Amino acid sequence: MKNHTDVLIFHTTICAGASQISLDGRRKLEICVAPSHKRFGMEMKMNFWKMMYVRWGREDISAWKSMKKAVYIIFPLLVYFLIHDAAQILSWAALNQFLLASREETVNFLNANGYTVQGIINGLAILCGVAAIWQAVKNEISWAECKDVDKDKDQDKCPSRDKILEKAAKSGSCMTQKATAYMVLGAFSFCSALGLNVLFHLLGITERSKSFTETASAQFGVAFIVGLFLYGVLSPLAEEAVFRGLIFNRMKRCFHYPVALIVSSLLFGCYHGNMVQAVYGTILGIIITFVYERYESFVAPVLFHGVANVCIFTISYYNGFSSMNGWKGWIAAIVSFVGAGICFWRIKSFDLKEHIS
Q: Among candidates 49, 51, 57, which has minimal Cα distance to 32?
């Protein structure tokens, strides 16, 4: 089992403007000012579309009513779905016109590879949806990765790229520590996804859901190489940009971390369209959000998501879960959860502030 269509650094800081402060003709500091009503003019004078795409700080948001906060969080998600669905409809319409004008051999080939065609069209729709809200996503991700900012106070400045690179180069063991942290993260993803999928299989949850069975048939019916790209690269980039990069970061400023963690994970689960994947997606969403906060890098949730997808897609593609029944399945589940627990403990013990950028 895997997420529906779960199968987008070092960044440039996004800001209203950058200025260099010089004393005695020498460059001292590069400051990036967060978008606010002081930089863009009074909020009421801004059009609705621009207001929804600006990264507002906690000080601005604290004066908003709950409804306005909800619109600020949900509106980009609605835009994503609208463009995504429109792109799908237009793609299928264009394909239909192409088939009407094609030879019988071409039609037969596309029919024989229907699931792969469906996956490619959905991938293109995902790209279109994310492109429509990319500016807002980029603003959120870039600001979230500014480690020298006091995020509790939401200070309006972010260190320059040169300063962060200089800090990263201080220790000769920096790259080794970073590689180790991400390898442990990959193992954490593999063990978590495998354990949950085996458990769902043993409890008969996946077999009892008709909607999940239909979705799984479509997902695992794509060509293997296409599936690896769709579920291991494209979908993790897109879904993490939307649900962690945009929704979680905005919700955290509007309602604080616990609410953002739970609600963004629930939205991520419901996005997958059936009860089995909603439960699985919500659990995985909570874990991915923890990873994002712990590593303070957008690379981390994308890597976790991608490894989980590739792991489950590969095992399911070759019908590997069918052999995980009875005591063999329970041993696999227990070993996976123990491995995930060890990785979780290791991640908690890493000094990520110094080594992850």
A: 57
pLDDT of the residue at 356? 56
Burial of 170 (0-12, 13-18, 19+ CB in 10 A): exposed
Angle in degrees, CA 346, 349, 350, rounded to 5:
90
Distance between CA atoms of 323 and 46, rounded to whole angstroms? 59
- H/E segment holding residue 58: helix 58-61
Q: Lowest-pLDDT range, 3-17, 48-62, 73-87, 308-322? A: 3-17
In this structure, are residues 219 and 230 in contact, taking their beta carbons and an 8 Å threshold?
no
**Domain spans in the chain, listed from the N-terminal domain onward:** 17-355
The residue among 255 and 1 whose pLDDT is bigger is 255
**Position 248: which residue type?**
F
Question: What is the C-alpha to C-alpha distance for residues 311 and 308, in angstroms, rounded to an integer?
Answer: 5
Q: Which of 1, 3, 6, 4 is nearest to 232 (CA)?
A: 6
Contacts of 73 (CB under 8 A, 6+ apart): 247, 250, 251, 254
Q: What are phi and psi of 23, to 5 degrees?
A: -120, 125
Per-residue model confidence as pLDDT tens digits over 61-120 = 988 898 999 999 999 999 999 999 999 999 999 999 999 999 999 999 999 999 999 999
Output the pLDDT for position 354.
53
